[in-house]
Amino acid sequence: xxxxxxxxxxxxxxxxxxxxxxxxxxxxxxxxxxxxxxxxxxxxxxxxxxxxxxxxxxxxxxxxxxxxxxxxxxxxxxxxxxxxxxxxxxxxxxxxxxxxxxxxxxxxxxxxxxxxxxxxxxxxxxxxxxxxxxxxxxxxxxxxxxxxxxxxxxxxxxxxxxxxxxxxxxxxxxxxxxxxxxxxxxxxxxxxxxxxxxxxxxxxxxxxxxxxxxxxxxxxxxxxxxxxxxxxxxxxxxxxxxxxxxxxxxxxxxxxxxxxxxxxxxxxxxxxxxxxxxxxxxxxxxxxxxxxxxxxxxxxxxxxxxxxxxxxxxxxxxxxxxxxxxxxxxxxxxxxxxxxxxxxxxxxxxxxxxxxxxxxxxxxxxxxxxxxxxxxxxxxxxxxxxxxxxxxxxxxxxxxxxxxxxxxxxxxxxxxx
Length: 417
Hints:
Its main location: membrane. The protein is of the alpha+beta class and 417 residues long. The chain has two domains: 190 residues, no CATH class; 185 residues, no CATH class. It has a six-stranded mixed barrel with strand order 2-3-10-5-7-6. A hairpin with a 2-residue loop joins β6 and β7. α1 packs across α12. The protein starts with a helix and ends with a helix. The mean pLDDT is 79.
């Protein structure tokens, strides 16, 4: 019997029991669909997160207080107040960090803002050192739509000025003008000197819900602290990022009298470091979810084997008749094995198509309903792997039923009722 004839025979056998064939591949369809959806959404989430991180700028370096976490036990030895004014002053010294083009200290927290009878819980970002529009534009790609940013003089004099996001303006002022008005933050009056355009999420900050104040004011009058949550440094070129990181580490270790790098009470991250770490985390999470979804493939494989064994029993007379007219054990083995492979292969294709449609629908909902920059990513590698796995399951779980059919005696098979 030729291979082409074996395929035709296998297809004819499946067509005679269409409903059973459809139910047989259900487990494979569900498993492949789940894998495609998980991988596609995982790729979309990874692209979204990495896009937010890279939105800060490729030359940006973040100095963060505390020891860089490498495990749960490390969180007990974090020094959140390790970045002080002296560290900022020494980093600003061009002779210490020659390739630092811009330096911006940052403190942040959640605060309640008020104007007359309206209140709004906003995120406060205290920054400075001459936080002109060019610095915010170069690091966060943010500039004022109305008014202006505060200046180095405002930072030094601890001026009670504030720049507000578009949502803060809408909540507090509605359609009324906001520039020049004073809002209340922790019993202090701040004059609105600038309004940001509707920008949404930039990196880890939503500038629409943010108020910007000089860091000196935030430290003394709002948060009551003398340390920084971050010091953000922008290198003068991408080629000098590594050199700048090393200069910062050497300088801060000298300031903090640290001889052993293992005892650092700070850590320095570049955008490439953050992106790589997030990529590893999202890949690991996606792999875990895929492994969970793959359980349904195994269950589907067992179901196929059981159904094929039932099919062998029901078609015993057919097997005996075919052997009586000259079919060999190899012909019977090939036919039933092809039936199993065709079932799982078709199930894999249906699962890929269904998974792609569900993934596209989910991406559209996330983009439209939640206003996220979420793109649909069809996982070509995952689809190919899913198809190979589904066919492989047909081979693995179809061998036993096929061999059982091939070994049946033609005389006993013909006598079977």
